[in-house]
Every structure is written in C-alpha cells, then in structure tokens.
Design goal:
Number of helices: 9
Distance between the termini: 35 Å
Number of strands: 10
Order of helices and strands: HEEHHEHEHEHEHEHEEHE
Shape: globular
Helix content: 25-40%
CATH superfamily: Vaccinia Virus protein VP39
CATH topology: Rossmann fold
C-alpha cells in the first residue's frame, strides 16, 4: 500500500520495542569481525522530524520515546537504544528527530557491512536516500521487499539479518510475511530474522503465530509489549517481535527491559510476553 506513512507513528511504543530489539541484534552481530548484511524489507523514510505535520497529528512519540528521554533508570538494553536516538539529536539535545530502523542500523554497522533497504512509497524512498547519503555499501531499492529480499540471500558473507516490518494495512501482509520468512529461511538457514507485528485483535495475532509455528522454521522466539488490554475496537494496543535465531543474550536483556517498558509506557491492563514459539 502506498498510502502508509510511518511518520504518523514514529517513536511510539511499537518503535520502542522494535528498535530496542534491533539494537541488541545488530550489536551482537557486530561482535565478530567478519562483515554481515542488513536487509530491511519495509524501510520507511529512515529519519523522522517530530515537528512535521504527520508526527504532530497524534504525537504518538509522547507516549513512547518521549517517556524515556530524560529518565536515569533505564535498563541497559533500553539505554543503548536511547543513546542512538540521542545521537540523532546532538545539536541541541532535545527530542526532535527519530531514527527509523535504517538509520539505527547505520549507527551500528561497520563500513564493510552492506545494507539493502526496500521502500516502495516514492516520497519515502527519496527521503530514505537522503537519510542514507554518504554511507557506502548501501542500496535503496524501490521494489517489493518481500520478494526482493529473497534474491539477496544468502549474503556473500553468510552472516546477516533480515527485518520484516510491513504496515499490515492489508490483511494479506500477514500471509505474505509468513511466506517471505519461509522462502528466505530456505535460502539462508543460518541467518537472523526479525518480524514485527501489531496487536490489534488477539485472534489475528494467534493466527499469525500459528502459521509461523507451522512453517517449518526452527528456533523462533516471541516477545510482546502491550500498553493496554486486548480489545476488539479499532486501534493498536501493543506489538510484538518474532525472532529466528536471535542473539543468545537477548532473552536476558528483555527479561529486564520488558517489565520496565510495560510499567513506564503502559496503562492499566498493560502486559508483556516472552516465550519460545518453536524450539531449536
């Protein structure tokens, strides 16, 4: 869908979860000196100005990164994520810019680590190119990421991760993400895969997890943060990450981070979940 603009949601509670996890995964991959590839199937604009009309419309960042900005009690994993966001706001130290996944990856990848970023929205793709200017070994691809990522696997280094976080504006995205994971894993079984999903209705999340559980991929972990109770009303009450072959340190980090984020970002009925969806 070409109508979706992530600027309306930049820095919200879902971004906090997704990017806290992303930082941990990329830092773990960077521990080894060998290069690794980063592939983002739905990259967005890369960097968001929170003073823009889209971000100011609902100010979702106020109940996400805004609640973490000045705290001095962040768990280590959340603090590392916040430091990267702060690095994008060095000029005056105030929260104005929010980095999307590609910009966060840019901060953590080494010069020899290639990036392939898919974005089909023309305006977002142009903004993404500007956000990535000056970064070598980076390709912005104006094509479908679900199918496009398959041809890039396995990467030459045989190391890397794929992030899949579509907007889920259309129900077909739920099936598409399962197919993309299945096809990509078949080509790159030693890779790390991260799938973000929204919690809108619990039945839809349960269906997605059931399909992922039955797709033949092993070693899948699930982490979820809900800032409100499940509801059948319109709107997102939380989000989650499905991770294939995640960093072995991540579960311990999220065991500390998720209860903290639930308390700080959530209201009455907020909850979190961590489980092994499919064992090794």
């Amino acid at each position: 869908m070409l109508s979706y603009l992530h600027g309306y949601h930049a820095g919200n509670h879902a971004d906090v979860l997704k990017h806290t996890v992303l930082v941990a995964l990329l830092e773990h991959l960077a521990l080894k000196s060998a290069p690794f590839s980063y592939i983002d199937t739905h990259a967005g604009a890369g960097l968001y100005d929170l003073r823009d009309r889209e971000a100011r419309r609902n100010r979702e960042f106020d109940s996400g990164i805004g609640l973490l900005w000045d705290r001095d009690d962040l768990p280590a994993g959340v603090d590392r994520y916040r430091r990267i966001v702060r690095a994008c706001n060095e000029r005056d130290g105030h929260l104005r810019f929010y980095p999307g996944s590609p910009r966060i990856a840019r901060e953590l990848l080494r010069p020899d680590d290639p990036m392939d970023l898919f974005e089909t929205h023309p305006a977002e793709s142009r903004r993404l190119e500007r956000a990535m200017e000056g970064r070598a070994r980076t390709r912005v691809r104006a094509e479908d990421g679900f199918t496009g990522c398959i041809g890039l696997l396995p990467p030459p280094s045989r190391r890397g991760m794929v992030l899949m976080d579509p907007a889920y504006e259309v129900k077909a995205d739920f099936a598409a993400v399962v197919k993309a994971l299945t096809d990509a894993h078949r080509r790159f079984a030693t890779g790390t895969f991260a799938i973000w999903y929204p919690v809108t209705t619990r039945a839809r999340v349960d269906r997605l997890c059931r399909q992922v559980r039955n797709c033949g991929v092993r070693d899948i972990h699930r982490h979820e943060l809900c800032v409100a109770p499940d509801s059948e009303d319109f709107g997102m009450t939380g989000s989650g990450m499905l991770l294939v072959r995640p960093a072995y340190t991540l579960r311990a980090e999220l065991a500390e981070a998720l209860p903290f984020l639930t308390r700080v970002l959530g209201g009455a009925g907020a909850s979190h979940l961590s489980e092994v969806l499919v064992p090794e």
